[in-house]
Target: Protein HGH1 homolog
Amino acid sequence: MPTELEELVGFIASPNAKIRLLATENLVPFSASQPALFKTDDLTPIKHLKFLIRDHPKIAEHALTCLINLTAEKDVLEYVATDDRFLGILLGLLVDSDEVNANLMAMLLANLTKWDGLKSLLDRKQPAPEKLGSDGRVINQLMDLFVKGADGTYNKHADYDYLSYVFADLSKHDKIRHYFVNRQEYDDVIPINKIKVFTEHKSDIRRKGVASIIKNAAFDIPSHPKFLDEDDVNILPYVLLPIMGGEVYPEDEALEMLTDLQLLPPDKQRDPDSSNILTHLETLTLLTTTRAGRDLMRSVSVYPIIRETHLRVNDQAVQDACERLVNVLMRDEADGEENEGGAVEEDDDIVEV
Model:
């Protein structure tokens, strides 16, 4: 005999909208605490929840929240992420400028991209809404959604912050790293240049995701010249500013710093999340892999910034990362020494995030 909760799960597929609403609303907490309830009959309840993302907005909201919780389970994640038809529906709804549940859809997509097979998004295409101003590639549409979501100019219901987590997971794959550092034909812009401006954004989610994207992209060593070139990506100011506060530097140190880092206001705040600071420090360490990267950081006085970060951030992992980076920057090097890969080899703890 089914329990009351098992009966409630069955009502997800009711032809009566009021019953579907009541069922999905009451099942949300159990999708997190008792996921086994939804795994009966070869995951049939999951199949019904997938169908409901196109239902009445409140029903769709609850169904999406359940799916977000349930895709923390590996078997459910695989079941949902490998459903190509469902993925097409989800992506089509996500780019709709009137979609009220777009943020929840972005959260669900962020979970789904933990499935390695979702790297196929790089090659996926769908028609782009005219308002979005993108091309037919899904990854470009997601990028443009993320950028426009920062100020709410595309969909008044969504900020699309969780797309930063989508990109962070996808950027663990080599081909998608290449996407981030190569100019796109449809708008002649390097994608990482669109997102680097968010390293100091007010949204914790957006800052964290973007920091991870930049770090993952920095594992592509051949792209480092482009990362560091002022006329291409020019990433250093965007990685250094979040780890700086309002501290005053001696004039000789300050004058050697990048222009964007000089004369910061006394109330300048460094990122309050020490994990973001750690990510930026690891990005800097990756960018010391080449001699050119190390020489540039020395010439623009990166060391004093790391010194102050070490002094002012009370976090052991951050302090350890500072010490590793300083060891690389302060060591003596023979003329002509390139030492490709040396900095990364010294720091075996740096991994994709």
User: Anything to note?
Assistant: The chain is about 55% helix and 0% strand. The chain has a mean pLDDT of 94. The first helix runs from residue 4 to 10.
